[in-house]
Write the structure tokens for this entry.
Amino acid sequence: MKLFTAIGVSHLSFSDGKLIKKKYRKFELTKTEKLTDSLYHFIFQKENMPIHSYYFIVDDLETERYLFVENNEYYKDFCKQFFRVPFMMPETDMDVYLDVHKPEEVYKQVNQVYRDHFYEEHESMPISHFFGQQEWHGNAYLIANRAALLELKDAIDTALLHGESRTVSFPSDGEGYYTYIKCVDEDFDWEQVDMPYHNPKYFSREEAEPYKSFTHYKNHLR
């Protein structure tokens, strides 16, 4: 299974099963496969490393389109080539683990993650506040509505299955952020991550770097 993240590519032209771009930056398109009328599988390559991507057309008018890109070491460089201003790259929070050897399952999974990406009018926005430990034996708190807890539960289930996941969290002021979750092995070296205590009265240390423990999401975090 590989982790894929979607970027918006509605600004790009699409013809004859290909994204129209003047020049691909050191990436060679080696394969194009039509899986359905609204889903194409592209395989690019750089330095003998394949980069899988899935082009997803949401509507018949093709006004909303996404490219689900494999999260490997070339993820950021690959995505930047589609945008004139790289730091304005419209990455979404649509993540999905896909088996590239089971194309018959890909459309269902991509379509489902797209549908789950939006909230219906009758659905509550997920709101949660995390409060970590201040010091030794200090309590930690999670105060959240039902919607937030259900999304966190789904993210935990994904991490248990695939090792890593993330979910969008919203505090009550609406300023969203990602909560990254990693399921580590029993032999994990806990000295790789700092202790979570953060009361400056007792602890004076350099900034913790828990992101270094992530594998699938390392290209998003570094």
Observations:
- The chain is about 20% helix and 35% strand.
- The first strand starts at residue 2 and ends at 8.
- The helical segments are 75-80, 103-116, 146-162, 218-221.
- The CA atoms of residues 166 and 180 lie 4 Å apart.
